[in-house]
Design brief:
3% strand
């Protein structure tokens, strides 16, 4: 029981870390970035990726070992929706991550004073969608934990 409580706590804590990283990214992405700002975005994005790994790992532990049993989760439409939305967030996050890395690699040898970001508004929209979806996931988790969604 204590293992479940600790695992669930870590799971929730790192969901919060993901949202904080997304909000930080949203506030940092601008049409012009300095090299230091790009490096900061990469660090934030790295923390975001690490937090996502922790969320998936602790979620899998709950699903298959510690929680209410594999069948409970696998047959719960709310859980399956929650899990699917998390995958959508992960897929959406690929575009900004690839963009950050691509520009780091492109300018690593000779970084300009300012990087002109032609698609900053698209990146901001993607991050905003990620934040909206991440704000829905805790509601789904609460519904699921209260037995709603069993097939």
């Amino acid at each position: 029981m204590l293992n479940l409580a600790i695992n669930t706590y870590v799971h929730i804590l790192f969901v919060i870390v993901i949202v904080v990283c997304l909000v930080m990214e949203l506030t940092q992405v601008k049409s012009e970035l300095t090299w230091k700002q790009l490096q900061r975005l990469l660090r934030i994005d790295g923390l975001y990726g690490l937090a996502a790994i922790v969320v998936v790992s602790t979620g899998m532990l709950n699903w298959f070992l510690l929680g209410k049993g594999e069948q409970y989760y696998s047959e719960n439409v709310i859980f399956l929706t929650k899990f699917s939305l998390f995958i959508v967030v992960g897929l959406l996050s690929l575009y900004p991550t690839i963009w950050f890395f691509k520009h780091k690699k492109k300018y690593k040898e000779d970084p300009p004073e300012f990087l002109h970001i032609t698609n900053a508004s698209l990146i901001r929209k993607i991050i905003t969608v990620e934040i909206v979806i991440m704000s829905i996931i805790p509601l789904l988790a609460t519904l699921m934990a209260n037995g709603i969604g069993n097939l």
